[in-house]
């Protein structure tokens, strides 16, 4: 009801504010007997961690995760897994001056209207700091999906403003080597330069992130409302700053003819993947391909017009520590959300269909890398 | 779990197959004491009804809705409202030949893998015929939202292949006058011509539909997962053939700078609406603007390669009655889904926050028409 | 939210009023590939059907169920199963006079306070007529549980006022032969006599019904809140007129010592079953034993004091057709509810634990018949 | 799905094991702007705290609660409230020897069968230690219900084995003064004596606890499945060791005639309260009266027969620290569960029915104290 839980069979219930004592979540529904420790979760948290390059917020958080329950002698027990991340570097004084202002394009005004109260320190509950929790929970899902089903979930920055990686230079290894999760090593320099100009200017920029899940078995997803693509859209749009979601061909499908868009099938595999691995809301066995649009950060040093809590006009300048492009750190978050949705549907499908023995042929995925 | 219910406080549980006895739904959570009869629901069903122009499927269904429960002496009682639509024009013989084939880009293969069985007649549960049920349920939500909150939900076709209405000619009245829900009277002829060529060719085309909700009060939407935009994305992506969803500026935000994207505020109102009326997952009082991409129909007279249920290569030609552009009839469906989501959040917000008395100023929406 | 849906993985969403067009439900989550037809459901409906003896209401309803969806060529498809029962014998005129009265011990006053409106015809939504829907849905669950897991669910009347069957004469076959679901053939005459006196008097009486599920595998039930016993208690207490629920020893446990109450275990099986087959909220493999208390019918020909809708004192005499003991027809309803809960937990357990291979010994149930 | 969350509009998601790092929960859906601090929660935790008398387990836990989120400057914000209680006195060595045994009447065997693994230290997740979390969450609900609606929730021990308080000596103040929550000061000595004999013997005993909510407005509860009494039954039966639940007259209704059981109404109020304040699943405005049966503790120093994890016969003697009567400390737990259910239904009712203005007369409760 209050929207802090995602999932049905595999659920994540999140809590915490940017400048409170801690953030965390309860992961419920994870199958028992999977080995799990903090070391399985920390690497993804480290990928998302702030303050790692000059292109992200300078807030320093160790983001050390602690498992409080649900694991016994190194194995999951089937009981809820509580994950805790303490807030250590809260400089609340930075935010005192925005207490009485509604920053344009922030959640300030909407929270105030909804609740009649808001924790204004660092954006409180609306801060993207909450996404650390998602990354932690997603790591649990990723591990199970990989070990039990061989599913691999990866993402990359596919656009930074107008800058796009050249897909001919695409390299998954490169994604983990630069601060942008950019798959094209030759584009990284240009991105760095662009970000420096932007930071100097006090402005911010939008971005696009692509996420791909390979190895998803056919049959996951629940028609008609909780289609796999619908739940993915929900999860992605729930990430701070996301304004658009595409599955497969996405908006390109608008101008396509049926003969071009349909993915023909041969015994050797699908001949294309415009569907993004989902047919009728159910996975087809092909790669699941998702693309999301992230708006530019709204916290800017450049003054913007707004009103204060008394309805009087005011000028807002945000001097706190912020990402000049929230899209840069979005890759591990989007991967985590995709993992959570897939995990949920893996379990949901088992509830109803665990006895289904497919006697129909398995069509190979054969999704060409170019479809990314 | 099985995905046939949408909503939390206001729920719609759908049933029925394209060629079964009937389709229908149970609408639960509608507040009591609202006047309601079939006459309130039928008009939207008629807008979606097949066979009304040569540009949509020639299947003839009266789509007459019957209210089975939840209404007493013309008023809702707070009890579940069951809506029934009988199937009358099922020509199941049309589909006999596809029994053993997996039509490319259809749900056939995915359903077979998931359930080990499928009702292949007219696509069974995966048929877009199910969307009639959504339109009926959406009409109930629309009525309540309009009467209780003054919310107005409208949609239009914003793109048909490469053809776009000229926004200078935008006229809401025109939307209801032509077969395409096109707001530009001068574009209708071109669209007709294009569709005739396409039908002759045996091909299909994608489309884009925009939906707008005006008059939504600030404060609806539940952070962090069930944001209003996240739930809208879920609902939209659950519509057959939808492959992309945008809120506000959507993918255009990728190339925007923060200073251009943020919607500045003055006591007279917001100066722009790139956020699409949603901040931090909560409605801001501005127009809620949504845009969706629909892929071209997959059922084509032009042969496509596929495999049969034995894994052997086959050629698929679909001769049944189909829409050459599913996007054409999507407008009332998308409106209905937006209505269902808004209704759900109106009620959800009341559960927790019905005592909140806003002491903060109400910022006028002032969303310029061009933002559509 | 509005409470018309029960279950999580296997759900039943109910609709309909006593004197509306029809009652029915949507059963969602039933696994595919189970053979199912109306003939599988009708027998249980017939067991509950009114007007079969002089000891139950004289309303005559055929209670003929129709499957509207979810079954294709005689098999379930995994899609929602809509069940419809038309109301045929509604004598609404019988109820005109209670329109302005709140019958004591009825839902009239509470519905009016909650919704500000109520369908007073035959009790509307609060009528026990709704339980026909539960019996229909329960029949689907029963069939699956029996075929897939070998679970057998049976019930009987264990007390009618002060009259109790002699457990030495217990015979399951007898249960289906008399109008009371009484397992002791020698007690039936006494019960008939008692009921006739009661009917003459215009009064009613309470009852107790026991329900037993045999063959439930160990491991169903979800700690800590949705324990199997907790969900059973919920389902039983949701039946009209039920005021108490016991699992296993129930209230007898209050005066028992630990050494008497604990069910000791040997390799040959459990030595007793005071736990009612549930340990820590999870099934143990023993018989699941449940007992419920049903209050006497509140609709009486004997005048009772009440107030009318204007708050004025009034006398209420109910002349409609009613059961003098609602407990008599409760047996198939309680069986159905137990089936629905067990089915739900069977599927829920599969979601999370379908990979668990028990390496621990299976303790035989060995629950002696006397434990009933 | 995994059962660790209770509620729909007001939810409590629990985590933690008896001997893990911590236990806790996330309380979601609490309305904003209520003052809240640890001091509002601690008193109820202290009432439940172990080691306070010789009649409860000698484990010493401070049970100090920490609020991690959802409260800002002393007021709730509408965001999730995370509550944490660290485990401090875990003597895990006490439990080493039961690692390979299934203690009779414990959850050991059922957990092992369900999950294939179990945290055997102190019962792990199945330990009643988890109920501390419920008490903490219940305190939040109690506070809101009291402040917003004037609801008062209280409980007392109504039976200890065969010992019952004399209702003529009933005194709510006395309940808080003795270790048993016994309302009859003259019975306390007898109870102490009985418990000492029992402790010497190494045995345990069952108990009964009554809980009453006064001031609940008419109209809470959702027919037909999520009736207020059904949800109360669910919540009560989810408490460790509870084997029976009664609402109002409960099992006494079995032998009552309709004329005796119905609660007649006059403009001055209801003349009795056999319904326990709930009609048709909806609160009537009368006191809500609930009674629960608790089985005797299963952990005994007296040897019991069982099997080990290899299926071999064994003798179990439990030497850890345990309550000789779990019922003694159950009163605050049962109060908490009732508070959580009522809070949930208060909010659920607002979602759908916040516009209902009752024009019908409010019937006074007038529930005589004797009905307790």
Automatic annotation (TrEMBL), chains A, B, C, D:
Q: Name one GO cellular component term.
A: cytosol
Give one GO term, molecular function aspect: chorismate synthase activity
One GO term of the biological process aspect: aromatic amino acid family biosynthetic process
Q: InterPro entries from the entry? A: Chorismate_synth (IPR000453), Chorismate_synth_AroC_sf (IPR035904), Chorismate_synthase_CS (IPR020541)
Q: What is its EC number?
A: 4.2.3.5
| Catalytic activity, reaction form | 5-O-(1-carboxyvinyl)-3-phosphoshikimate = chorismate + phosphate
Q: Where is this region: Disordered?
A: 37-60, 353-372
What is the recorded function of this protein according to its Swiss-Prot or TrEMBL entry? This reaction introduces a second double bond into the aromatic ring system.
Instruction: Provide the protein name.
Output: Chorismate synthase
Organism of origin is Beggiatoa leptomitoformis
Name of the coding gene: aroC
């Amino acid at each position: 009801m209050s929207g802090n839980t995602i999932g049905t069979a595999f659920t994540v219930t999140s809590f915490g504010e940017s400048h409170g004592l801690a953030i965390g979540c309860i992961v419920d529904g994870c199958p028992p007997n999977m080995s799990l420790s903090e070391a399985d979760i920390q690497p993804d948290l480290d990928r998302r961690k702030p303050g790692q390059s000059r292109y992200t917020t300078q807030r320093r958080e160790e983001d050390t995760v602690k498992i409080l329950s649900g694991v016994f002698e190194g194995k999951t027990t089937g009981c809820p897994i509580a994950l805790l991340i303490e807030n250590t570097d809260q400089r609340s004084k930075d935010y005192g001056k925005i207490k009485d202002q509604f920053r344009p394009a922030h959640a300030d005004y909407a929270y105030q209207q909804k609740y009649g109260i808001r924790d204004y320190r660092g954006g409180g509950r609306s801060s993207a700091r909450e996404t650390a929790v998602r990354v932690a929970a997603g790591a649990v899902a990723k591990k199970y999906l990989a070990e039990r089903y061989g599913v691999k979930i990866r993402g990359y920055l596919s656009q930074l403003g107008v800058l796009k990686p050249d897909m001919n230079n695409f390299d998954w290894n490169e994604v983990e080597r630069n601060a942008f999760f950019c798959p094209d090593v030759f584009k990284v320099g240009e991105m760095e330069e662009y970000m420096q100009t932007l930071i100097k200017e006090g402005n911010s920029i939008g971005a696009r992130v692509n996420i791909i899940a390979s190895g998803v078995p056919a049959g996951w997803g629940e028609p008609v409302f909780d289609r796999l693509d619908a739940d993915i859209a929900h999860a992605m749009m729930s990430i701070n700053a996301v304004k658009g979601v595409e599955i497969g061909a996405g908006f390109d499908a608008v101008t396509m003819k049926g003969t071009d868009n349909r993915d023909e099938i041969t015994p050797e595999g699908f001949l294309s993947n415009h569907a993004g691995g989902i047919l009728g809301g159910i996975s087809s066995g092909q790669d699941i391909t998702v693309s999301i649009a992230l708006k530019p950060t709204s916290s800017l040093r450049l003054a913007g017009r707004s009103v204060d809590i008394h309805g009087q006009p005011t000028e807002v300048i945000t001097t706190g520590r912020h990402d000049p492009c929230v899209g840069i750190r979005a890759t591990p978050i989007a991967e985590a959300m995709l993992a959570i949705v897939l995990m949920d549907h893996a379990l949901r499908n088992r509830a109803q269909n665990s006895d289904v023995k497919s006697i129909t042929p398995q069509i190979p995925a054969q999704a060409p890398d170019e479809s990314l």
